[in-house]
Amino acid sequence: METHPTKTPLLPLHTRPPPQIFQFSANCTLFNKNTLCLVLGPLLCLLTWLFLDLGSGRESDRNLIGVLGWIFEWWISEAVPMPVTSMSPLFLFPVFGVASAGVVAKSYMNDVIALVLGSFILALAIERYNIHRRLALNITEAFCGDPVQPRLLLLGICGTAAFVSMWMSNTAAAVMMMPVATGVLQRLPAEGDGPPEIGRFSKAVVLGVTYSVAVGGMSTLTGTGVNLVLVGMWGTYFPGARPIGFSTWFMFGFPLALLIFFALWAILCFYYVSHKSGSALADYLDKAHLKRELALLGPMSFAEKMILAVFGMLVVLWMTRNITDDIPGWGTLFHGRVSDGTVSVMMATLLFIIPNKKREGEKLMDWSACKHLPFDVLLLLGAGFAIADGVRTTGLADFLSAALSFLGAAPHLALVPLICLVSATLTEFITSNAATATLVSPSLSISPTPSGLVTLTRSC
Predict the structure, then answer these.
(1) What are the pLDDT digits (tens) for 121-159?
(2) E strand or H helix that includes residue 131
(3) What H or E segment, with its residue span, contains residue 216?
(4) 3-state secondary structure of 355
(5) How far apart are CA 102 and CA 173, in angstroms?
(6) Which of 65, 249, 260, 314 is the most exposed place for a label (fewest CB within 10 A)?
(7) H or E element, residue 124
(8) Which among 13, 286, 301, 11 is positioned nearest to 134, based on CA atoms?
(9) CA–CA distances in Å: residue 243 to residues 231, 249, 390
(10) From CA 340, how far away is CA 235, in angstroms rounded?
C-alpha cells in the first residue's frame, strides 16, 4: 500500500487566545465598519420618522421615505448581502403601513420576473451542454483568417461575446466566454517570453470580452437586469403608454449597441494591435488549432440541436409577438393576454419535457441543475418593482413630482449629461448597475421628463 508523507504546513501554526468580543478598542468586534453600516440603515429610518415633515398630511409618505433610506443605505454599503436587502420590502412595507404583504409579494413575481426566469433557465441549458463553447469556436475559426489576422480574430471573439450576452445576463456571458478566450490565448507565450505584440494582443482579447458582454447586453431586454428595471418602472408609472416589448427594445437597443461595439473594437485595435501582431501570432496560432478544438467537441448531439431549436423558436416568438402598428404579430390571436414572459416560461418548460436521448428518462433539463439560477437578480428586480409600486400608491409620487417640476423647463442637453454623470458615478464607485437603476429610477419616473429613464438605463 502506498503511503503518503505528512505534509508540513506552508505557514507556521500559532495558537491564539479566544477573541475578546466585548473589548472596547479599535479592533473590537462590535465596533467595525460593517456594524456601523448595519445600524445606520434603521437609524436613518428612525430619524426620518421622528423629524421629517413633508406637509402632505399622509404618514405613509414619511414612512416610505424612511424605509427607502434604510434599504438604499444597506444596498450601497452592502452591510447585508444584496439579495437579503432586496427581500426587506416584504416585511418593511407591511410593518410601516406602506403596502399590504399580499400587494408587495406580487411585485416579486410579475411578468418581467417571469421573462427573466425563463431566459435564465435556457441560459443554464446552453451552459450545461457546452453549446456556448462550440458557438464561440465556430465563429472564431471563421474570423481567424489564414494566415492569422489579429484584428479580424479580435472582432470574432468580441462579437461572439456580445452575441452570447444578448440572450443572458452579462455576468453569465462573461463567465462562459472568458474560458473560451483564454483557451485561445493558452497557445500564446506568457508576457515577457515572446514578442511584446503578443502580450498586447492578449490584453485586447481579455478587455474585449469584458466590455463586449456589457455592450451586447444593451441589445435585448434579457441581456442585462438594468433593461428589465426600466420596463418594470415604465409599466408602473406610465400605464397608458405603449408597453416596451422585446421587439420594441431590440429596434432601439441593437443599432446603438452595434455602433458602440465597433467603436470599442476600433479603440482596442488602435491601442493593442499593431501591424506587427500578425507575424508575431502566426508562429503560435492558426486555423488548425481551432479546428482541433472543434474536433474534440465531436458532432452536435440531439440534446444540443433541440436546445438550439428551442432557443431559436423563443427568439422568433419574442420578435413576432408585436411587430408594428400596421402589421400585428401573433399576439393578437390571444387578444393581448400573452406577453414575452409567457413565451419565456413556456419555452423553458419544454426543456423539462423533451428527452435528451443520453440516458433513459432523462430530459434536457432537470430541476437540480436550476440551483445555479441567479436568484439575487430576481430578488433585486422584485425589490425595485415593489419600491415603484409603493412610491406610486402612497401618493409620494405626486409630492416629488411637484418638487421636481423645475426639471420640465430644463433643456435635455443639460439634463441628460447630469443624469449620465450621477448614474455612472454610482455604478463606478458605490453599487452595481441594477441596484443603481433601482435606486434612481423612481425619481426620474415621476419627474416631468420620463425620457430620463432611458438615459439612466444606458448610463448604467
Answers:
(1) 888 888 888 887 787 677 777 877 777 788 888 898 899
(2) helix 131-144
(3) helix 196-216
(4) strand
(5) 35
(6) 260
(7) helix 111-128
(8) 301
(9) 8, 10, 20
(10) 14
Q: Please, which residues have CB within 8 angstroms of residue 268's CB and are 6 or more apart in sequence?
A: 154, 158, 204, 207, 208
User: What interhelical angle do 196-216 and 150-165 show, nearest 10?
Assistant: 30
Closest C-alpha to 171, from 202, 210, 137, 207: 210
Cell 455604478: give the residue: 427
Q: What is the DSSP letter of 109?
A: T
Q: What are phi and psi of 381, to 5 degrees?
A: -65, -45
What CA–CA distance (Å, rounded) separates 323 from 328?
6
Q: With contact defined as beta carbons under 8 Å apart, do 123 and 169 qualify?
A: yes
Model confidence band, residue 89 (pLDDT cutoffs 50, 70, 90)? very high
- Among 457, 394, 292, 434, CA closest to 60: 394
What does the alpha-carbon distance between residue 365 and residue 124 come to, in Å, rounded to a whole number? 9
H helix and E strand count, the chain: 21, 0
Identity of the residue numbered 294: L
Cell triple for residue 69? 433610506
Q: What is the pLDDT of residues 394-427, one digit of tens each?
A: 777 666 666 666 666 667 677 777 777 777 776 6
- What are φ and ψ of residue 363, in 5° steps? -100, 175
